[in-house]
Each structure stands twice: as structure tokens, then as C-alpha cells.
Amino acid sequence: GDSVTQMEGPVTLSEEAFLTINCTYTATGYPSLFWYVQYPGEGLQLLLKATKADDKGSNKGFEATYRKETTSFHLEKGSVQVSDSAVYFCALKAPGGGNKLTFGTGTQLKVEL
Amino acid sequence: DADVTQTPRNRITKTGKRIMLECSQTKGHDRMYWYRQDPGLGLRLIYYSFDVKDINKGEISDGYSVSRQAQAKFSLSLESAIPNQTALYFCATGTGFNRNTGELFFGEGSRLTVL
Fold first, then answer.
1. Measured between CB atoms, which of A32, A45, A89 is closest to B43?
2. Residues β-bridged to residue B48
3. Strands A107-112 and A11-14, how do they pair?
4. Which residues on chain A are in Cβ contact (under 8 Å) with B90?
5. In degrees, to the nearest 5, what angle opens at C-alpha A19 toward C-alphas A18 and A24?
6. Nearest Cβ partner of B99 from A45, A91, A98?
7. Nearest 5°: phi and psi at B87?
8. Angle (CA) A111 B4 B6, round 5°
9. How far is CA A98 from the centre of its chain?
10. From the DSSP assignment, how many helices (H) and strands (E) are in chain B?
């Protein structure tokens, strides 16, 4: 079945450091890919998405590129801030699967001054 | 006010008790979901509903039941709670009009502890 694998956390960075959170997936066909973010005490919210190969999703300085050849959707940000501290979830939606999402296990990011 | 509201936000109960978690939404979405979040396991789908007359099991539905009382309301019940149902539960909504985007809108979560 479909699955999403994320790098384990927590990831601890200093402010203004470069961030990469790895995400790879297994799915049939061409899924849509997502990054959701969960700030402390809140529900998840969509950060960015890509619906086809080579698409780049971007939002709030974060980017991720849909790589079909490596089945990856790595999240990057050039300069993190303390306010980026949160848990980040990679997710996929299989073609024709309605809004049903398969989530990764989440990666906690801690950004320190 | 939040678009997706869950009640209660926190609940402590004992083994064997019946518990209901409620979810209501003002987004006008037709699709509603219940997820469970556990440390190291991410989010897992319990049940989902595409409209009032449509209820579907997710990957971990055993021990749970749901009711879609109206388009805006979707409740999750634990008929006889057990300790391994201790978790953070999320309700989410989505719309069929954006079926190709997969975007879900989440509530703030209901933390359930079963002693």
C-alpha cells in the first residue's frame, strides 16, 4: 500500500540555518504530495503541495520539489526562524482517493537563538 | 471562532467507559475525517465520511464508531475505552470540489487519556 517515510527528529538548528527534512514515498500512479505543519497546541495546517512530477510547492519561505525519479519530496528553507519550530508532516494523496491522505510520522523541528 | 471545532479538548476517563468526541465545522465542506495521532506513528485514519449518508472505515477503525448527524457534524465514539486508545484525536474536513488538491482543514485536537 501507499506509505510515506520521513527522517526522524528532533532536528535542532540555530536561527538562520538551512533546513532540509527528507521525505520519500511509495505509491502507485502519480500521487499528490503535501507538507503539513503542526505548531504547538494546534491542529495541522497545509504548508505547501505539489500535484505532478517536477512541480515545486512553496510557501512562507519553504520549498519542496516533486521528484518522481527518486520518489521524494524534501522540504527546504534557506534561513529558519524560531517561529518555524513545529512538527512537519509529509503526506500523499493517491489518484482518485478523494481527500484521503497518508501521513508520515512527522519530524519535530526546534530552532534556537 | 475556529472553522473546525472539537469538543472536548481534553478528557480523562477510565477503562470501559463510553466516550464521544464531537466535531462541528462552519466551512460548508461535505467531507469529514477522524484521525488519531500517536508519537512516532504520525496520523492514522479512523473513519471518514463523504456526505451524511456515506460512512467509511479507515485503517484503524476497530474499537471506534462514528455518526454523521448533519453535514456539519461528525462524532467519534469509543464504546468501551481501553488504555491503548489514549491519543490525540483530530477531526478534519475537505471539499469534493477540490478533490484533486487533497487539502484538509484540521481542528485543534482532542486529547484523550484512558486510565
1. A89
2. B33, B56
3. parallel
4. 43-44
5. 145
6. A98
7. -175, 180
8. 90
9. 20
10. 0, 11
- At A89, list the grid cell: 508532516
The answer to whether residue B68 scores a pLDDT higher than 70 is yes
Q: What is the pLDDT of residue B39?
A: 84
Q: What is the residue type of A66?
A: Y
Q: Please, are residues B92 and B27 in contact by the beta-carbon 8 Å criterion?
A: no
Q: Copy the grid coordinates of residue B25.
A: 465545522
Q: What is the DSSP letter of B98?
A: G
- The model's pLDDT over A19-47, given as tens digits with 9 standing for 90+, comes to 999 999 999 888 999 999 999 888 899 99
| Touching A: B residues 59-88, CB under 8 Å | none
Residue B82, min C-alpha distance to chain A (Å): 23
A90 close to A7: Cβ distance less than 8 angstroms: no
At position A83, the amino acid (one-letter code) is S
User: What's the Cα-to-Cα distance from B83 to each of B15, B87, B91, B115, rounded to whole Å?
Assistant: 7, 9, 21, 6
